[in-house]
Design goal:
With 225 residues, the protein is an alpha/beta fold. The chain is built from nine helices and twelve strands. The strands form three sheets. The chain has an eight-stranded parallel sheet with strand order 7-6-5-4-1-12-11-10. A two-stranded antiparallel sheet has the order 2-3.
Length: 225
């Protein structure tokens, strides 16, 4: 029996943290999601630290997703994650320098794979190439998880998600553009470790007229039924 993917609630829209992320979290923190995160841009760092502290005080596991494709930018994103005390660093292209920052801060590091561009991100490359890239990082660098932007893929997203989760020897978080119940069904079928939803909650894709927290509960209940 496949495991049920865990929801990571992202306080982000269009790959940026929303300005009122602290207030949104406070209003929705009693919902059923255990995993919460946001992006490296959109909030000043002092507010990021306040938000991480609030999430941890509420018993949440915290995720920072860094959308950058240069080593300098990826390292700086990782350092922000370290200073704010995040549990998990998602995103960045893989660099030894980023892994070093994450390890020293005790953050689990889950990099992107594939050919990435833009913000919001577009994912190119081949399914076989991304699987090989990931397993090479597992074998040679000790990476234990990946941030796969499956629904941003220019090819067959459903096939990519299924094959990547099946063949990669690490945790996989399917991130970005999970915006419908059909995609929830597809994500569930993969048995991935986790998946993110951010913008779809702000656009009320999981319940017109429902609050942010009520939509979270709709998704968690749907995945668990």
């Amino acid at each position: 029996m496949k495991r049920i993917p865990e929801l990571v609630v992202m306080l982000t829209h269009n790959d940026r943290t929303v300005p009122d992320a602290i207030e949104v979290f406070e209003a929705a923190k009693d919902s059923k999601a255990k995993f919460w995160g946001f992006k490296e841009i959109g909030l000043p760092e002092e507010k990021m630290k306040i938000l991480v502290d609030k999430m941890k005080a509420a018993g949440k596991t915290t995720f920072l997703e860094v959308v950058d494709y240069t080593e300098e930018g990826c390292v700086e994103g990782a350092k922000i994650g370290a200073r704010c005390g995040f549990d998990i660093l998602m995103g960045t292209l893989y660099f030894d320098s980023v892994k070093k920052v994450a390890e020293e801060a005790g953050m689990k590091y889950m990099p992107f794979v594939g050919e990435l561009s833009g913000r919001p991100s577009i994912l190119g490359g081949t399914i076989e190439g991304m699987i090989k890239e990931a397993n090479d990082l597992v074998d040679n660098k000790g990476i234990k998880g990946f941030d796969l932007l499956g629904y941003r893929f220019t090819g067959d997203a459903v096939k990519l998600n299924e094959e990547f989760v099946k063949q990669v020897r690490a945790d996989v978080c399917l991130a970005g553009s999970v915006s419908s119940f059909q995609r929830l069904d597809e994500v569930k079928a993969t048995g991935a470790w986790a998946f993110t939803i951010g913008g779809a909650f702000f656009e009320n894709k999981f319940g017109e007229g429902l609050s942010f927290g009520e939509q979270i509960d709709v998704v968690v209940d749907y995945m668990n039924r």
